[in-house]
Specification:
The chain is mainly α. It has one domain. The protein is built from 7 helices and no strands. Helix 4 packs antiparallel against helix 5 and helix 5 runs antiparallel to helix 6. The longest helix is centred in the last third of the chain and has 21 residues. It starts with a helix and ends with a helix.
């Protein structure tokens, strides 16, 4: 399914996406934004991040959080990108505490996007 421009705008508010910035970054290509949104829940490495946090592997967690942050930034998901940055900056003992809010936000975003299919 492809989201339509108006539908993306309403979804953007729900997921914390800066729609106008995304529209500018994607040169007005609403179908490209739609495609990225639909693939976001599967294409971002959240599983790798969760496994690294569970095993307290800070190096892998930081790399996975950086990759997720880059994906979030590309879609102008500012709040998610900020949560990823907190994980990137945490040490092994602080990984889980930094990851919990990120995971909660990610689950919320993914469930909204998956509900739109």
């Amino acid at each position: 399914m492809i989201f339509h421009g108006m539908n993306i705008r309403s979804i953007a508010d729900k997921i914390g996406m800066d729609y106008d910035a995304a529209l500018e970054d994607f040169c007005g290509d609403v179908s490209a934004i739609s495609s990225k949104l639909l693939s976001f829940p599967e294409d971002n490495g959240i599983g790798t991040l969760e496994a690294a946090v569970d095993s307290k592997d800070a190096e892998t967690a930081h790399k996975a959080a950086r990759a997720l942050r880059k994906s979030a930034e590309k879609l102008c998901l500012t709040r998610l990108a900020e949560e990823c940055s907190k994980v990137e900056k945490s040490d092994a003992d602080g990984l889980e505490g930094a990851y919990i809010p990120l995971r909660s936000l990610y689950i919320s975003i993914a469930s909204i996007l998956e509900g739109e299919e």
